[in-house]
C-alpha cells in the first residue's frame, strides 16, 4: 500500500468513526411526541439548572409532579421549564395527569471542572510547550463532558476529539470580539513588518537611542511608553512591545524583561486610568451588583471611590521602576538578564525566544526616517482614542453642565465600542504606512504587499494560541470552574475586614485558571459585592464602614483578576505580551511569576488588610512603595 492510499484509508476511517460517535445518542425513556423530558446538554452536580418538560395539553392547568414535588402549571404553551439542581447519578420521574415519564442522568462532579485548566497550566509550566498543553486541557474537558452522557468510553473519546474543533474552537471564533482581536493583531503585525522594511523602525531606534543609551534608560523609556498608552491594554501591549524590541535587543535587555515590562504596564495602567476601554464593562458589572442591594450611589462614583485602594496596579508600576532604576533582579529574571548580557550568547537567546518571527534585515539603500514608523504608530494611538470617543459619543452627557470635563470623557469612553476603535485605527495605520512607503518610492507596490502579508504570517502562532485559550475558557465556563473555586473559598467564614483580601485571592485564582480578567470580573462582581454588603451588616458594621469595605472589595476583584491574568500561561494578554516582545511564552510566564506574586503579597499585607481596618491609602501606598524598594534592595542582585 502506497503512502497516498494509506492516507486515504485513514481519512475514510476518521469519517466512519465520526459518524459512529455522533450517531449514538443518550439513552432515556422520554421519547414521545406529546410528553417528553429534555435535560441540559451538560449536567453539573450542585449547580442550579433547568428541566424542560414537553407536554401537549388542551389549555387547562395541569398538575406536574417532579419526583416528590408537586406544582401547578398553566398549560398555555407546549413546554414547562422547571428549575432543578442535579445531584450525582439519579433518576427523574415526571407525572402529568395519568401519564408518567422517567429519565436517568449522570451529573458531572463539580470538582472535576478544575481539571482542564489545571492540567493545561501544569503541562505548560512543566513541558514549556503551550500548544500541546492547551490541546490536552481542551481534550480533558470535552472527555469529561461526554463521559457523563451515558455512552461508551470509545464513543466519548472520539466525540471529545471532534468537539474540540466543531464546538469549542468554532464557538470561540464565532465571538465577534475574538475575531476583532485576531484582525487587529494581524493588522498590527502587518504594520510593524512594513515600518521595519521601509526603514522607519530603524529610524525610531536611532532617535530613541539618544534617550535609551543604556540598559537602564532603555527600560525606563519602555516603562514610560507603557504608561502613556493607557487607554487600552491590547493596543499598549502590541505597540510598545513591537516598537521597543529592536531598542532593547541592541541594549542587551532580555526579551523576558521586555515582555514583563510590557505585560505589567498594560493591564495595570488600563485598570486605574479613568479613561480606558475597561471602564464601560466594569461599570456595567458594578451596576448589576448595586441593583441587588439597592445602593443609591452611581456605578461611576463607586469606581472613583475604589481607585485609591487598587494597590496591586499601583505597586506593580512602582516595582518595575525600582528594579529598573536599581538595576537589580531576582529569580528566573536574573538568569535571563545574565544570558542577555553575554555577548557570545545573545544571538542564541534571540533565536530561542523568537521561533515564530524571522530576523528582518533591510537594505543599506533604504533611508531610515523615523516618521515612517512614528506616524503609523501615532495613527494607532490617536486613532484608537478618536474611535473610542466617536463610538461612545453622547450629546446628553457632553452637554451636562453639572459634570466635569474628565467625567464626561470617562463616561463617553466607558460607553464606547473598543473593538471597533481598535480595528479602525489599525487599518488606518496600515494604509498610512503603505502610503508612506510607496509615496516616497522606498518600496514598490509589490514589496509593500509582500511585507504586509509577511506581517500577517508572523501573528499566526499567537493567533493559534489565542484560539485554543479562548476554547479552553469556554470549557471552563460550561463546567462551572469558577463556581467550584468560589464555593470552596466562600464557604470559609471570614470577618468582614478580611473579605477584600479573600476576594483578591479568589479573583486571582479564577483569573489564573480561566485566563480571563474580564471573565473573572463578570463572575465575581455580581456574586461578591452583594455578599460583602450583607456580611458587613450581619457583623454589625455601620453603613459608612460597610461602604468603605464595599469600595475596597470592588478594587480587590479587579486587582486580583489582573494578578491572576499576569500569572496565567493561558491568558490572552500574557500571550500577546510574549508575541509583541518575540519572547518564548513559557519563559515569559516563568520569569514574571515571582515578581507578580511578590507584589501581590505586599498588596494584601500592606494594602488590603490594613485598608479594611480603616488605614488611609495616603499612608498605605507610600508604605508599600518603601517595602518594595527594600525587597528589591536586599533580595535583588546587580
UniProtKB/TrEMBL annotation:
Source domain of life: Bacteria
Name of protein: Na+/H+ antiporter NhaC family protein
Domain Na+/H+ antiporter NhaC-like C-terminal: from-to ranges: 275-607
Protein keywords: Cell membrane, Membrane, Signal, Transmembrane, Transmembrane helix
Species lineage: Bacteria, Pseudomonadati, Bacteroidota, Bacteroidia, Marinilabiliales
Membrane topology term: Multi-pass membrane protein
Organism, as annotated: Marinifilum caeruleilacunae
Subcellular location: Cell membrane
UniProt-listed InterPro entries: Na/H_Antiport_NhaC-like_C
Transmembrane segments: 108-127, 134-158, 178-196, 258-281, 310-326, 370-393, 419-439, 451-473, 504-528, 595-613, 619-636
Primary site of residence: membrane
Keyword Membrane: yes
Amino acid at each position: 500500500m502506497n503512502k497516498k492510499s494509506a492516507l486515504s484509508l485513514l481519512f475514510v476511517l476518521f469519517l466512519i468513526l465520526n459518524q459512529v460517535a455522533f450517531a449514538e445518542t443518550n439513552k432515556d425513556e422520554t421519547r414521545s411526541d406529546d410528553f417528553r423530558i429534555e435535560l441540559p446538554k451538560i449536567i453539573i452536580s450542585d449547580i442550579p439548572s433547568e428541566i424542560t418538560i414537553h407536554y401537549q395539553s388542551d389549555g387547562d392547568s395541569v398538575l406536574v409532579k417532579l419526583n416528590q414535588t408537586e406544582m401547578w402549571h398553566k398549560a398555555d404553551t407546549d413546554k414547562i421549564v422547571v428549575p432543578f439542581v442535579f445531584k450525582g447519578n439519579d433518576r427523574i420521574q415526571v407525572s402529568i395527569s395519568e401519564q408518567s415519564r422517567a429519565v436517568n442522568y449522570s451529573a458531572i462532579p463539580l470538582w472535576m471542572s478544575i481539571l482542564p485548566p489545571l492540567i493545561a497550566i501544569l503541562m505548560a509550566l512543566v513541558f514549556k510547550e503551550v500548544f500541546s498543553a492547551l490541546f490536552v486541557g481542551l481534550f480533558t474537558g470535552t472527555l469529561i463532558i461526554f463521559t457523563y452522557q451515558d455512552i461508551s468510553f470509545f464513543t466519548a473519546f472520539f466525540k471529545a476529539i471532534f468537539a474540540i474543533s466543531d464546538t469549542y474552537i468554532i464557538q470561540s471564533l464565532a465571538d465577534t470580539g475574538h475575531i476583532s482581536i485576531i484582525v487587529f493583531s494581524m493588522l498590527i503585525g502587518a504594520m510593524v513588518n512594513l515600518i521595519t522594511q521601509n526603514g522607519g523602525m530603524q529610524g525610531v531606534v536611532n532617535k530613541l537611542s539618544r534617550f535609551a543609551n543604556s540598559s537602564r534608560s532603555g527600560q525606563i523609556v519602555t516603562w514610560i511608553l507603557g504608561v502613556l498608552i493607557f487607554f487600552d491594554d491590547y493596543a499598549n501591549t502590541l505597540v510598545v512591545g513591537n516598537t521597543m524590541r529592536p531598542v532593547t535587543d541592541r541594549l542587551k535587555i532580555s526579551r523576558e524583561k521586555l515582555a514583563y515590562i510590557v505585560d505589567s504596564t498594560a493591564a495595570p495602567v488600563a485598570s486605574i486610568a479613568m479613561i480606558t476601554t475597561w471602564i464601560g464593562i466594569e461599570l456595567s458589572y458594578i451596576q448589576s451588583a448595586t441593583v441587588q442591594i439597592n445602593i443609591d450611589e452611581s456605578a461611576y462614583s463607586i469606581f472613583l471611590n475604589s481607585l485609591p485602594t487598587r494597590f496591586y496596579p499601583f505597586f506593580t508600576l512602582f516595582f518595575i521602576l525600582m528594579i529598573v532604576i536599581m538595576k537589580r533582579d531576582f529569580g528566573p529574571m536574573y538568569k535571563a538578564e545574565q544570558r542577555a548580557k553575554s555577548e557570545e550568547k545573545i544571538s542564541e537567546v534571540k533565536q530561542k525566544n523568537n521561533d515564530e518571527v524571522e530576523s528582518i534585515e533591510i537594505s543599506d539603500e533604504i533611508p531610515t526616517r523615523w516618521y515612517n514608523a512614528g506616524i503609523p504608530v501615532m495613527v494607532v494611538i490617536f486613532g484608537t482614542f478618536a474611535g473610542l470617543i466617536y463610538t461612545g459619543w453622547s450629546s446628553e452627557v457632553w452637554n451636562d453642565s453639572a459634570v466635569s470635563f474628565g467625567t464626561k470623557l470617562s463616561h463617553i469612553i466607558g460607553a464606547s465600542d473598543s473593538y471597533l476603535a481598535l480595528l479602525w485605527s489599525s487599518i488606518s495605520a496600515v494604509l498610512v504606512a503603505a502610503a508612506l512607503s510607496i509615496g516616497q518610492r522606498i518600496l514598490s507596490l509589490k514589496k509593500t504587499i509582500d511585507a504586509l502579508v509577511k506581517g500577517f504570517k508572523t501573528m499566526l502562532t499567537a493567533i493559534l494560541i489565542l484560539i485554543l485559550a479562548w476554547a479552553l475558557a469556554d470549557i471552563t465556563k460550561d463546567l462551572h470552574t469558577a463556581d467550584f473555586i468560589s464555593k470552596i473559598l466562600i464557604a470559609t467564614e471570614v470577618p468582614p475586614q478580611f473579605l477584600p483580601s479573600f476576594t483578591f485571592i479568589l479573583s486571582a485564582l479564577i483569573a489564573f485558571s480561566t485566563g480571563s480578567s474580564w471573565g473573572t470580573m463578570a463572575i465575581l462582581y455580581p456574586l461578591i459585592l452583594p455578599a460583602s454588603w450583607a456580611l458587613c451588616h450581619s457583623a454589625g458594621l455601620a453603613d459608612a464602614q460597610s461602604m468603605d469595605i464595599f469600595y475596597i472589595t470592588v478594587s480587590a476583584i479587579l486587582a486580583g483578576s489582573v494578578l491572576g491574568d499576569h500569572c496565567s500561561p493561558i491568558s490572552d494578554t500574557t500571550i500577546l505580551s510574549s508575541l509583541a516582545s518575540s519572547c518564548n511564552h513559557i519563559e515569559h510566564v516563568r520569569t514574571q511569576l515571582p515578581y507578580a506574586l511578590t507584589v501581590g503579597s505586599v498588596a494584601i499585607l500592606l494594602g488590603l488588610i490594613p485598608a479594611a481596618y480603616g488605614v488611609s491609602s495616603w499612608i498605605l501606598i507610600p508604605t508599600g512603595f518603601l517595602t518594595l524598594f527594600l525587597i528589591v534592595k536586599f533580595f535583588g542582585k546587580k
